[in-house]
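The records we work with from here on pair a chain with its fold. A complete example follows; check for yourself that the lines match position by position.
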Amino acid sequence: MKSTAILLTSLMIFCNATAQNMRIHYDDYLDAIGYGDEGIVMRSILNHGLMDRFPGESDDFYSHRSSFFAMILLVNGVLPYHIYQLEEEGIDLIHAITSDVRPFTEQSLFADAGVLAEVINVETGRPENDGFDVTVTIKTEQFLKGSAPSDTLYLRQRNLSRLSDSATRPEAGNRYLFLLSSGMYQYQTANYQFAESGEAEVRKPQTGLEDTFVIYRMYPFRNGRLQFSHQDYETVERELRITDRLLNPD
């Protein structure tokens, strides 16, 4: 598994975090990883979209959501020039950032990889410099969105979260459709390092070249059917491949 200590093209960031949670602000993080200009454009696009869709809300409503989702989208490989292409395909970006129920075309905007995979190992008690103590190793059967250097991927989790939430507790021997984010793994790692030492090593995500992720969404796959989804697997596969084609045309 890759370690942030050996990443190339890294830089040290010293950011102002909120006193409440010591988190690196979304805008600061984008600046640090070299997405400052893209962040400005993405925030503007989202802010105008939110104001059109939800007029009369507070300035904080618009600014917080615009900053947060600009970062989420950018670290998962959605850049400002993709927005027109997504809209042309009928993918509603504002619905994606405001609704709890989304089609997979929208869900996949928050994950740089979508895979059908089997869990081959769950190992606890391996704390690393990322704040996680569980490594879930999966063997990918299908890449439906995105790519990786190999079909063996690593998912980092916290044991306390696994114990409290069965919805995000993949078990060895079972198969799942995973929506995964390496960009959010890097952001959460940076926040942990910053809270521990006041600094963090960061870099721009290398979409398609990562092997370590956090789980955005997961759906058990049994007897050819997805659990906890009203859509059949063939429909989900088609939707994920639509966003993959738009965001990763090569």
About this structure: The first strand starts at residue 11 and ends at 13. The radius of gyration is 18 Å. Strands lie at 11-13, 113-124, 134-145, 152-157, 175-181, 200-202, 212-222, 225-226. The first helix runs from residue 26 to 32.
